[in-house]
UniProtKB/TrEMBL annotation:
<dbReference type="GO" id="GO:0050118">
    <property type="term" value="F:N-acetyldiaminopimelate deacetylase activity"/>
</dbReference>
<keyword id="KW-0378">Hydrolase</keyword>
<feature type="binding site">
    <location>
        <position position="370"/>
    </location>
    <ligand>
        <name>Mn(2+)</name>
    </ligand>
</feature>
<dbReference type="GO" id="GO:0046872">
    <property type="term" value="F:metal ion binding"/>
</dbReference>
<keyword id="KW-0464">Manganese</keyword>
<dbReference type="InterPro" id="IPR036264">
    <property type="entry name" value="Bact_exopeptidase_dim_dom"/>
</dbReference>
<dbReference type="Pfam" id="PF01546">
    <property type="entry name" value="Peptidase_M20"/>
</dbReference>
<dbReference type="InterPro" id="IPR017439">
    <property type="entry name" value="Amidohydrolase"/>
</dbReference>
<dbReference type="GO" id="GO:0019877">
    <property type="term" value="P:diaminopimelate biosynthetic process"/>
</dbReference>
<feature type="binding site">
    <location>
        <position position="144"/>
    </location>
    <ligand>
        <name>Mn(2+)</name>
    </ligand>
</feature>
<protein>
    <submittedName>
        <fullName>Amidohydrolase</fullName>
        <ecNumber>3.-.-.-</ecNumber>
    </submittedName>
</protein>
<dbReference type="InterPro" id="IPR002933">
    <property type="entry name" value="Peptidase_M20"/>
</dbReference>
<feature type="binding site">
    <location>
        <position position="108"/>
    </location>
    <ligand>
        <name>Mn(2+)</name>
    </ligand>
</feature>
<feature type="binding site">
    <location>
        <position position="170"/>
    </location>
    <ligand>
        <name>Mn(2+)</name>
    </ligand>
</feature>
<feature type="domain" description="Peptidase M20 dimerisation">
    <location>
        <begin position="194"/>
        <end position="285"/>
    </location>
</feature>
<dbReference type="InterPro" id="IPR011650">
    <property type="entry name" value="Peptidase_M20_dimer"/>
</dbReference>
<keyword id="KW-0479">Metal-binding</keyword>
């Protein structure tokens, strides 16, 4: 019978260190693929703990804790992931750890994710003689922009040793610290940014009959694209088509020759994703041609849907109560329309991703992520460490 390990107690014992690391990273935010200071700090801590690592995807890091209790040649390996980049936002908080870098801020909690992964590394490495397998630590750069995960995967972070499963988390300002949010199946949407250039024929605003008005065409396209969501995709699965930018024209009495619109598609299944992309192109082309114009369409392949593996969700459901109690586990009913580059890892290996509560409503710590007042209740740090440690340990020793 396995001896019960109190990971939360172990994590609470290093809370002061966790808070220090998190605040230091928060004060010195760096954008995607520019995380040089952050990367060095991570490496310094790994060196101190005697954990070997290698640089990947530029500023990313892959580290390895080798369990020493393995009794056979074939051992299991589980990966824990934390993202390390910040956002181009001016920090409006007034506190002792406000960002020192003008126009940059950890407004999405990646400083907490990095800290939690480092805390888990410290504890798990201290007990590697008891581990029947390996733990890979993935510090991902550029999650907010191009998705550093896919570059890490290309560089082989899931091989040698072969990673069997992966665990990820994200702090949530909508969930009280001390609680977590779990969901089966699809957890995050897929996204496809797109650009549509409408080509017409410019001319005098007083003589529209001599022109092909791209503004009129753009207006019809924008309205018609909404019919994809309202009339062509099943309401059982959430989807969104948003136009976030429209540019064209220079004066009120001039009909321009070109208008550019930009938007994004958010879908919850691969089938929906492919269908929506096809229809955006078909509708845009059809309307433009019917109104005597033409279009150039570019639809980007951005983050895929994030699917949680059933067996990995069961692992979380079975281990989390040992850390926070069954009453603090929230079963989420709906997926998030946001995107998450952890989805690239989840496409490669059985994975689980969950929300770690970081809000404190009494103290007003519940400002939205990607906002200039975002912050976390730091009591979530040791809880996150304990949850990650407990899952990794259970996976390797069960």
């Amino acid at each position: 019978m396995k001896e019960k390990i109190d990971f939360l107690k172990m994590a609470e014992e290093i809370k002061e260190e966790l808070v220090y690391i998190r605040r230091d990273i928060h004060e010195n935010p760096e954008l995607g693929f520019e995380e040089y200071r952050t990367s060095k700090k991570i490496k310094d801590i790994l060196d101190k703990e005697g954990i070997p690592y290698k640089a990947v995807a530029g500023t990313g890091i892959s580290a390895l804790i080798k369990g020493e209790k393995s009794s056979s040649d074939k051992v299991k390996t589980i990966a824990l992931r934390g993202d390390i980049d910040a956002l181009p936002i001016k920090d409006a908080k007034v506190c002792s750890y406000t960002s020192k870098i003008e126009g940059k801020m950890h407004a999405c909690g990646h400083d907490a994710h990095t800290t939690i992964l480092l805390g888990a590394a410290k504890i798990l490495n201290s007990m590697k003689k008891e581990l029947k397998g390996n733990i890979v630590l993935l510090f991902e750069p550029a999650e907010e922009t191009v998705g550093g995960a896919k570059y890490m995967i290309k560089e082989g972070v899931l091989e040698e040793p072969y990673v069997d499963a992966i665990i990820g988390l994200h702090v949530s300002e909508a969930i009280e610290a001390g609680k977590i949010g779990i969901k089966r199946d699809v957890f995050n949407a897929a996204s496809n940014p797109f650009t549509i250039k409408i080509k017409g024929k410019g001319g005098h605003g007083a003589h529209p009959e001599d022109t092909i008005d791209p503004i009129l065409i753009a207006s019809n396209i924008i309205m018609s694209l909404q019919s994809i969501v309202s009339r062509e995709l099943s309401p059982a699965y959430p989807s969104v088509i948003t136009i976030g930018s429209i540019h064209g024209g220079t004066a009120e009495n001039i009909i321009p020759k070109e208008v550019e619109i930009k938007g994004i598609i958010r879908t919850m299944t691969n089938e929906q994703r492919e269908y929506a992309k096809k229809r955006v192109a078909e509708i845009s082309k059809g309307i433009a041609e019917s109104l005597r114009g033409r279009v150039e369409i570019k639809i980007d392949e951005s983050y895929p849907c994030l699917y949680n593996d059933d067996e990995m969700v069961k692992l979380l459901e079975n281990t989390a109560p040992k850390v926070i109690g069954e009453e603090n586990i929230i079963k989420l009913k709906h997926p998030s329309m946001g995107v998450e580059s952890f989805a690239y890892f989840a496409m490669e290996r059985p994975s689980v991703f969950y929300f770690l509560g970081s809000a404190n409503f009494e103290k007003g710590i519940n400002n939205p992520a990607h906002g200039d007042l975002f912050d976390i209740d730091e009591s979530c740090l040791p809880i996150g460490v304990a949850l990650q440690c407990n899952m990794a340990y259970e996976y390797l020793t069960r």
